[in-house]
Design goal:
Transmembrane segments: 6-25
Family: Belongs to the diacylglycerol/lipid kinase family.
Largest sheet: 11 strands, antiparallel
CATH topology of the largest domain: Tumour Suppressor Smad4
Cofactor: Mg(2+)
Number of strands: 17
Domain DAGKc: 49-180
Number of helices: 10
Shape: globular
CATH architecture of the largest domain: Sandwich
Number of domains: 2
Strand content: 25-35%
Structural class: alpha+beta
Keywords: ATP-binding, Kinase, Lipid biosynthesis, Lipid metabolism, Membrane, Nucleotide-binding, Phospholipid biosynthesis, Phospholipid metabolism, Transferase, Transmembrane, Transmembrane helix
Helix content: 25-40%
Distance between the termini: 54 Å
Amino acid sequence: MEWQVWLGITAIVIASAALVVALGARSQQSRMRRQQPAAIHLTQVQAVPRAPRLLAFVANPSKAGMGDLEATVRAFCERQGLAEPLWYETTVEDPGTGPAKQAVEAGADVVVAAGGDGTVRAVAEALVGTRVPMGLLPMGTGNLLARNLQISVTSVNDALDVIAGGRTRTIDVGWARIAEFADPGPDDDTDREHVFLVIAGLGFDAAMVADADATLKRAVGWVAYFLAGLPHLHGRRMRARIWLDDTPPVDARLRSFIIGNCGLLPGGITLLPDAVVDDGILDVAAIDTRGGVVGWAQLTLEVVMQGFGVRNDLPEKLGRIDHTKARRARIRVAGGEQAQVDGDPLGNAVELETWVQPAALRVRVP
């Protein structure tokens, strides 16, 4: 067996061991966080002027566990002495923005997104710029924003306690727009702006999202995204031109271009370790690998270790992730690549624009 293959096997073993250690450490950190309140700037978390009395729930009926959720919610509100909650359901035609606007017009004190990341994005789109906070009742595969805000993704009652008895935090939101599609279809709209609360991306990450099987996601959760990514490991690298704010463009060869509002992913992986959800700026990561399996193994190790504050800044690496910050980021790629926002595919994009809207959304947090 050639030495390169042995090197690849060794790199994968090291990366896998680091991943196991990271997941164990993340689990311990999560237990510690549940035992003590998170450290948050006082200017960014404020008490609600009065305890919420009227809760409105925008629920995605297609999610697992939704059958008994309405009864659970109504029983919770009754125990807490709250008004009878408003209950809306999403549809294929309206994933939540319309019902959320109806809830605001009906006088809801908190509008709760009960579903996955797509429902959260749709509800957030209706609440951006209003004084009505969003609550999170995670029922999806990734539950990305809930994880980043330390809201339980496993206990409905714990999440409800945060909605009714937590605090309100003002956070930034990101926006993305496909300025040019590779093969425009009848539903592709270059004027459509998409909100994202965690991560937007173009390239390998978006291809993985687009190819994830819905049935498999229901069966194994976020692992379905990992399995969907395997066929793309040997795909071609993108030829990209990147603009950040007002700086001159930079040309690069990449696997993925990530723009994030916060950076914690399922499995305890921190993709953007410097990202802060309310700092008024986006975190940008350029991800690349060369050398086949060795490069991917090195990249895996790089991502895992940066979650512990350990970074390897050596210039010559087969797998690397380079970080910077910007308020606006634009990328153009030859031939087009898949784009995504918070795990929702947007289509095959030649050019993707993103920008931040600071302090635009109120969210209930522990």
